[in-house]
Design a protein that fits this description.
Blueprint lengths: L2 E9 L2 E8 L3 E5 L6 E4 L8 E6 L2 E6 L7 E2 L2 E2 L2 E3 L5 E4 L2 E9 L5 H7 L9 E4 L7 H4 L1
Parallel strand pairs: 3-4, 4-12
Antiparallel strand pairs: 1-2, 1-11, 3-5, 5-6, 6-9, 7-8, 10-11
Length: about 140
């Protein structure tokens, strides 16, 4: 059965944004062309890739400078588990695999994420906390 992948971006346990992706791949990075754009200097332009392979999603680090982590360990390739979390710099990515209804090929092609604003989730650095002096 076809699947979709919901990715929620969290910072310090608080959800910033969430999006459901359907299709064979999701590119994660800082580049404006990425499907999931994390705007942080520690994120590589093309940091990681999620591919639908067989009947599962696989997260792959694309040789990023700061790595991709699961359970505190650096990964190069990891099978995405429903409800699991991966970390890219200070962002946690929470994954939910969703079973979807079979669709015609035309519908699937239209919903496959490509490059462009409508298929992109962009998350920037959270606003810095103001110091006590700034609050006065």
């Amino acid at each position: 059965m076809p699947k979709a992948l919901q990715i929620s971006v969290l910072f310090k346990g608080k959800q910033l944004k969430s999006k459901t992706f359907q299709g064979p791949r999701v590119v994660i990075g800082r580049d404006p062309e990425c499907h999931l754009r994390l705007e942080n200097v520690g994120v590589s332009r093309h940091h990681a890739l999620i591919e639908f392979a067989g009947d599962e999603y696989v997260l792959k680090d694309l040789g990023s400078s700061n790595g991709t982590y699961v359970d505190g360990e650096t990964i190069t390739s990891w099978v995405v588990a429903n409800g699991a979390t991966a970390r890219i710099t200070k962002f946690d990515l929470l994954f939910h695999v969703i079973e979807t209804q079979p669709q015609s090929e035309a519908d699937t092609a239209m919903e496959t994420p490509g490059f462009g604003e409508q298929n992109t989730l962009c998350v920037g650095d959270p606003p810095a906390r103001k110091s006590r002096a700034d609050r006065r």
